[in-house]
Amino acid sequence: MTTLRIYAPASSANLSVGFDSLGAAISPIDGSLLGDVVQIEESDTPFQLDTAGYFVRKLPKEPQKNIVYQAYVLFSERLKLRGGQVKHLRLTLEKNMPIGSGLGSSACSIVAALVALNQFHDTPFSKTELLEMMGELEGRISGSIHYDNVAPCYLGGVQLMVQSLGNICQPLPFFDEWYWVLAYPGIEVSTAEARAILPKSYTRQEVIAQARYLGSFVHACHSQQAQLAALMMKDLVAEPYREALLPNFPEVRQGCKDLGALAVGISGSGPTMYAIAPDLEHAQKLVTYLETHYLQNNEGFIHICQVDNQGARAIK
Questions:
Q1: Distance CA 23, CA 17 (A)
Q2: What residues form the annotated binding site for ATP?
Q3: Which of 3.40.50.720, 3.30.230.10, 3.30.1330.30, 1.10.443.10 is the CATH number of 4-173+309-315?
């Protein structure tokens, strides 16, 4: 193997109802790559890291601060502990995702890098071992280990974080007919900032209600009750506090619902928001509305997406 290119798709964490517990891999229906690509190839020098892509200017200037470099270091350490030898290689990160977007930007880079490194070295680590490394690296950025972006980005589909019986996550059956309209306004919200704004405690009533929403949502997914699932996509944990970080979010949320959106919420920690449409016609109406009422500058974008059931994969 001389050259390998791995694409890791965007992800939408929480799905409103499952704070730090749910995540979905998402890809545009037009076939465009909303996610990062890492290319790995043999090299004459021990290690080289290059960067490319539209959002490369937002990356840290020092290579040591790049999460792909940190992924290489962690992978190398773990491989050496097993008696393995790291090959001489060159990594190129194609940064196609805005940083601080709420679409799992750091997860895309982490997942693409570790999958590329693992395949390049003839798969020394299992999926669970690799996922544990992904969570550790994600924790270095956000301040706490959580898998709701890296798990769906890596494995695809909608993933529920169980972290029990040897499983970090398990897939949830979902609704293939739904269209996800993702709108990134073009501003940045850091995950650390979005977590810091949350209260340190919640009332008993809030905890009971959120547990009911999540339990009902998971049941609705397994029993394929789309209407119930959409109705249960409510957030008492983060959205009431984080909406202040997003431009005109309460008004835009209501506007989307008036246009027939089944559910509307914040993707991850924001500022990207999602609106779920029952069909393509409604999705296109939501795009038109969000272009006028949510985008803040020419950095912003809107994609009509569906759940990506493949996850990270090799591309040409």
A1: 10
A2: 98-108
A3: 3.30.230.10
Query: What b/e string do you get for 208-233 counting C-beta neighbours within 10 Å, with b at 16 or more?
Result: eebeebbebbbebbeeebbeebbebb
Cα–Cα distances (Å) from 105 to 31, 37, 169, 174, in that order, read 18, 11, 20, 23
Number of other CB atoms surrounding residue 164 within 10 Å: 8
What is the distance between the alpha carbons of residues 289 and 309, in angstroms, rounded to a whole number?
Answer: 28
| Model pLDDT for residues 124-172, shown as the tens digit of each residue | 999 999 999 999 999 887 777 889 999 999 999 999 999 999 899 999 9
The pTM assigned to this predicted structure is 0.94
Question: Has domain 179-305 been given CATH number 2.40.30.10?
Answer: no
Residues of the chain with CATH 3.30.230.10: 4-173+309-315
What's phi and psi for 105, nearest 5 deg? -60, -50
236: its two tokens: 């008492």
Residue set of the binding site = 98-108
